[in-house]
Amino acid sequence: MRVDFDVVIAGAGPAGAWALKHLPEGVRALLVDAGNPLESSRDGKLCGGMLTAQAQALLPELPSEVRAEHFKTKLEYHDLDTGARARFPVDYANCYRSSLDRWLLRQALDARGHDADCFPRTRVTGLQSEEKAVRVRLDDKHEVTASRFLDCTGWRQVSRRALAVPTAPYYHALQVGCILSSPYPYYIAVFASKWTPFFGWFIPKSESLGEIGAAFESDRRDPPLEMLAPLAKHLREYGLEFEPGRIRGCRLTRPAKDSDIWLGQGRVLACGEAAGMVSPSSGDGISYALASGKAAAQTVGLPVEAAPAAYHRALMPQLAETRRNVIKARLLASRRARRIAGVLLPFVHRGHFERLSL
Ligand SMILES: Cc1cc2nc3c(=O)[nH]c(=O)nc-3n(C[C@H](O)[C@H](O)[C@H](O)COP(=O)(O)OP(=O)(O)OC[C@H]3O[C@@H](n4cnc5c(N)ncnc54)[C@H](O)[C@@H]3O)c2cc1C
Predict the structure, then answer these.
(1) pTM of the model
(2) Which of 28, 100, 176, 338 is the most core-located residue (most Cβ within 10 A)?
(3) Domain range spanning residue 291?
(4) Is 321 in the pocket of ligand 1 (CB under 6 A)?
């Protein structure tokens, strides 16, 4: 069998870009993405654009076009179940998500030079893993073969579907970009079990722009405006004045047990959200995407039989963290645990914790 590429990477989000960037020298790679990640679009990926400390540690310094105006901001939590409201510093970096993705991809393409082909607006529509290579179907029209396939297709989890591996559970997330009438510089998380099993959020991007969103049960299909209305009303009561744009929705992967994470098999490795790696407590997925994309790329030079185990080993810290976050998600869903956290937080953030009235 003729093998066209050493590796095909599907998806040019953080996982795909970071995989491409970290491939061993001389590896012939093809990166495909269903969209055009290098193009600036108003309707970019649905995301809060908050980078955890882990994500920040995996990245070089972010350029100014990626940083949101409120790059470092305090968290304000509103817990409607326990009647608590407080503000304290968190180690998140606030960025513009589409600028981040474009910047990551540009770095990866610069690092690869002539070793990589990049096909935008090209969708992987089929996948067959054979003894000598993987056959990758593109746009239901063409076929390429590769020694390895890295699935970085996010919540679409293309390889799981193609190889009949059950997909991970998910929330149905909604988010809407808003024009603010007056600036509000804090990131807000609203816990209210009567509205959402997760939490609702407001993320300030600039003096005049912000994002409002929440996640819901996967089978909930009420009109989006109706689902977000209680959160919007609550935020208005607490001083936010805004004009919402178009509400958009997509899946937010939510691993609940070890088997919801699938790192791949044989010649196919899954990275980032395609592997099911998203924090079920906070919805953060970028750090896992970066770490797993890099780790998968570093296995491409190994014999096929050794790659999945090496990949698994390299991701031990992230797998342990996901397990901790599964427990954290359970605690966050419990009023009692949140009430206890409300007692402990002032000690954790001593001197920086402001209790506010709700
Ligand atoms: C509402 C919301 C808010 C979020 N907020 C945050 C946040 O603030 N911080 C954070 O860390 N995480 C956040 N996340 C999670 C985060 O966005 C994802 O976990 C992260 O983008 C995963 O990166 P990835 O590279 O694995 O996949 P993605 O970034 O989803 O990239 C997948 C790429 O694959 C492409 N693709 C899909 N199917 C195909 C196909 N068949 N063929 C070719 N290409 C394909 C897509 O076009 C896309 O570019 C949020 C998620 C949601 C839904």
Answers:
(1) 0.97
(2) 100
(3) 5-42+98-167+256-328
(4) no
